[in-house]
Design goal:
alpha+beta; three-stranded antiparallel beta sheet; 3 helices; 10 strands; globular; disordered N terminus
């Protein structure tokens, strides 16, 4: 697979949404309008690539924003103004930080955050919004599928499955997004990463 295709379908979906979600609250930001409101979900691939190997080594990522997280060793890291992303082929991990007045609740996440996610993403279909107990404390877990950004050369897209975790402390909201082609088997690895989050 060509490097530019990998980059286009791996990084852009997460960064596009993160740009719109990196606001001072859970309320949708002005200017983040649905670019593809009429886009239809594409069919997931049979036997999709994207499984993180059971032998994958994880290393600690320490953010200057005051938290740590285990991420896969060897994945391409890109630092951003609001966080960082780690990408390998069709798989990705994105952490973004924003200010918030209060911790998100199930109701506020469904009413505000999910609505914004659906507006900013490509053919987003949310299947679950739950409060979960993790070592770092209570968090909100959002499960959804989406289309990747079209490849600039081939216009090809893949259907992605995503998990997004919202962690809050002292006016700071951290969103952890994990994504891979729909049907990839990353349950254990995603659980390891989401459970490894710690406030410093």
């Amino acid at each position: 697979m060509k490097p530019h295709f990998r980059k286009a379908i791996s990084v852009l979906p997460a960064l596009t949404v993160a740009a719109c979600l990196g606001t001072t609250s859970l309320v949708p930001a002005l200017g983040c309008l649905p670019a593809s409101a009429a886009e239809k979900p594409i069919q997931p691939e049979k036997n999709p690539p994207g499984d993180i190997p059971d032998t994958q080594v994880f290393i600690d990522y320490t953010s200057p924003e005051g938290f740590t997280l285990k991420v896969p060793e060897g994945w391409a890291r890109s630092d951003r103004a609001d966080g960082a992303s780690f990408v390998d082929k069709l798989d990705g991990v994105v952490v973004s930080v924003s200010k918030a007045n209060a911790a998100p609740t199930l109701d506020s996440a469904k009413a505000d955050y999910v609505a914004k996610l659906e507006a900013a993403g490509r053919a987003v279909r949310v299947s679950a919004v739950k409060q979960v107990k993790l070592p770092a404390g209570a968090a909100i877990r959002i499960v959804y599928t989406s289309n990747s950004e079209p490849n600039a050369v081939t216009n090809r897209q893949v259907r992605l499955e995503n998990e997004r975790y919202l962690y809050f402390k002292d006016g700071k909201l951290v969103a952890l997004e994990l994504y891979a082609p729909k049907g990839a088997d990353n349950v254990d690895q995603w659980q390891l990463m989401s459970s490894s989050f710690r406030w410093k």
